[in-house]
Amino acid sequence: MSSMYFTEEHQMFRQSLKNFLQKEVVPHIEKWEKTGEIESFIWKKFGEMGYLGIAYPEQYGGLNLDLFYTVILLEELQKINSGGFAASIWAHCYLAMTYLNKEGSHEIKKQYLAPSISGKKIGCLCITEPFAGSDVAGMRTTAVKKDDTYIINGSKTFITNGFYCDYMVVAAKTSPELGNKGISIFVVDKDTPGISASKLNKLGWRASNTAEIAFDNVTVPASNLMGKLNKGFSHIMQHFALERLVMGVNAHARAEFALDYVLKYMAERKTFGKYLDKYQALRHKFSDMYSFMEICKEYNYTVANRMNKGEYVVKEATISKLQSTKMADEVVYGCLQFLGGYGYMEDYPMARLFRDSRLGPIGGGTSEILREIIAKMIIDKKDYKPTT
Ligand SMILES: Cc1cc2nc3c(=O)[nH]c(=O)nc-3n(C[C@H](O)[C@H](O)[C@H](O)COP(=O)(O)OP(=O)(O)OC[C@H]3O[C@@H](n4cnc5c(N)ncnc54)[C@H](O)[C@@H]3O)c2cc1C
Fold first, then answer.
1. Which end of the chain, C or N, has fewer beta carbons within 10 A?
2. Can you give the three-state secondary structure of the chain, one letter per residue?
């Protein structure tokens, strides 16, 4: 069924990406997982290969390829088993850069998008705040216009790439009295005076850096406003569709990696004189997990196909993230159990996978919030429209 979406060119791209990851990334993963810092040379290598610009216009150095190339990039990143490394790459490419591409002016694209594609500048997306996570509209960070500048004050938290980055895409209130209709988006250089970032210590995604960021009278040119003034909430909601599909695809790929691993493990590990893959209890559990993964994968491809055609698939992308991250959590949990005590050991891949997978139902909209969005669309007949 997958061949419906993947051409021979896609498959060639997948193979060369796999080779690249094995040669250039895998030898460094253990170190980056320990230090929590990805060395900068790898961004340049990704840039040289064109991987950071797959989805972006040729005018700025991108490859302008269809969404299934992005799906392949996301899947293969999961299959080298560092949720943190993968997150650093996709947060740069599909969180920060999405705004530059969709809302940035030509000048902003030249200044930020082009070097993001070449791997010379790394970005992050700053929406979450200490007192406003799920409740995006409750954000308190402000951007006040003064002459031809905006002055930003406030704080953000849990920002992927927020410690080691060159620029930030920041949501702030330009008209706080208007609630969610008073939010705007800015691009801000990380070294602007008044910005301070501290690194957070976390359960998983260890190769990525996650930061708390304070903005103290940070002055940016008014031309750093992206999209329309006070339309930031609509832009955020709009881009959540892609972000959620990205997280759905990540989840099915992570689960597939876990299942592939245990399949080999079960064929090699004997107890009571029999290989694990001969025990009915385990065979049936495996079959259930495999089926759930396949259902999510094929669903995600369908959603990707519709998004690729330009459809606004907000409901479908929400379902994709909700169900795929639930599935991945269950599959990874189940696969760890198949390894017995070895599953708990850091020398085996399941321990890291288990830690990393847990973020799926939390980041980019928790499962509880996603259920509420689906309920609003189905029960209350709310219609989320694309931004005009
Ligand atoms: C490692 C990591 C990386 C991240 N990267 C980024 C990033 O790059 N950029 C960014 O902006 N953010 C990022 N986030 C933030 C992430 O999106 C938020 O953590 C998430 O949206 C939840 O917000 P919160 O943590 O404030 O939880 P809260 O909003 O405080 O929610 C707490 C709990 O209450 C539940 N809850 C809240 N409201 C309701 C409700 N109305 N009904 C039912 N249940 C509810 C939630 O589901 C959750 O279980 C990251 C987070 C982590 C942990």
1. C
2. CHHHCCCHHHHHHHHHHHHHHHHHHHHHHHHHHHHCCCCCHHHHHHHHHCHHHCCCCHHHCCCCCCHHHHHHHHHHHHCCCCHHHHHHHHHHHHHHHHHHHHHCCHHHHHHHHHHHHHCCCCEEEECCECCECCCHHHCCCEEEEECCEEEEEEEEEEEECCCCCCEEEEEEECCHHHHHHHEEEEEEECCCCCEEEEECCCCCCCCCCEEEEEEEEEEEEHHHEECCCCEHHHHHHHHHHHHHHHHHHHHHHHHHHHHHHHHHHHHHCEECCEEHHHCHHHHHHHHHHHHHHHHHHHHHHHHHHHHHCCCCCHHHHHHHHHHHHHHHHHHHHHHHHHCHHHHHCCCCHHHHHHHHHCCCCCCCCCHHHHHHHHHHHHCCCCCCCCCC
Residue nearest to ligand 1 atom 37, measured at CA: 134
Contacts 24+ apart (CB under 8 A), 265-268: 265/338, 265/339, 266/338
Ligand 1 and 158: CB distance under 6 A: yes
CA angle, corner 195, sides to 191 and 201, nearest 5? Answer: 105
Task: Determine whether the shortest distance from the Cβ of 303 to ligand 1 is under 6 A.
Answer: no
Asked if residue 362 has its Cβ within 6 Å of ligand 1, the reply is yes
Which residues participate in catalysis according to the annotation? 243
Average predicted confidence (pLDDT) for the chain:
97
Among 154, 225, 245, smallest CA distance to 196 is for: 154
Q: Whose CA is nearest to atom 29 of ligand 1?
A: 134
Using a 6 Å cutoff on CB, does residue 134 contact ligand 1? yes
Q: Report which protein residue has its CA nearest ligand 1's atom 30.
A: 133
pTM for this one? 0.97
Contact 218, 151 (CB under 8 A): yes
Give tens-digit pLDDT for 33-77: 999 999 999 999 999 999 999 999 999 999 999 999 999 999 999
